[in-house]
Amino acid sequence: MQRDTKDIDTLGIPYDLGSVMHYGSTAFSADQTSKTLVTSPDMLQLIQTCFFENHRLDSAIRNRNQKRFRVNPRENKLDRINKLQNKS
């Protein structure tokens, strides 16, 4: 069941890629190597792979990385995708 992003209320809290409830990017693939969960923008995938799958980072470090890669947690996912596509 797919939901429209306007139907989801995060209460202003950014998604926590370091959460224990976050699955790895290949968690549900049949061959355990294909990515089934991909973050947007692409830089977050790199951050997740390098940092969050292996280490629990405190909120201050996560927030600093969000700012470094200019991720606005309140910006909806479709807006982020559109920005990435327009940069190409």
Automatic annotation (TrEMBL):
<protein>
    <recommendedName>
        <fullName>Peptidase M12A domain-containing protein</fullName>
    </recommendedName>
</protein>
<dbReference type="InterPro" id="IPR024079">
    <property type="entry name" value="MetalloPept_cat_dom_sf"/>
</dbReference>
<feature type="domain" description="Peptidase M12A">
    <location>
        <begin position="1"/>
        <end position="88"/>
    </location>
</feature>
<dbReference type="GO" id="GO:0006508">
    <property type="term" value="P:proteolysis"/>
</dbReference>
<feature type="region of interest" description="Disordered">
    <location>
        <begin position="68"/>
        <end position="88"/>
    </location>
</feature>
<dbReference type="Pfam" id="PF01400">
    <property type="entry name" value="Astacin"/>
</dbReference>
<dbReference type="GO" id="GO:0004222">
    <property type="term" value="F:metalloendopeptidase activity"/>
</dbReference>
<feature type="compositionally biased region" description="Basic and acidic residues">
    <location>
        <begin position="72"/>
        <end position="82"/>
    </location>
</feature>
<dbReference type="InterPro" id="IPR001506">
    <property type="entry name" value="Peptidase_M12A"/>
</dbReference>
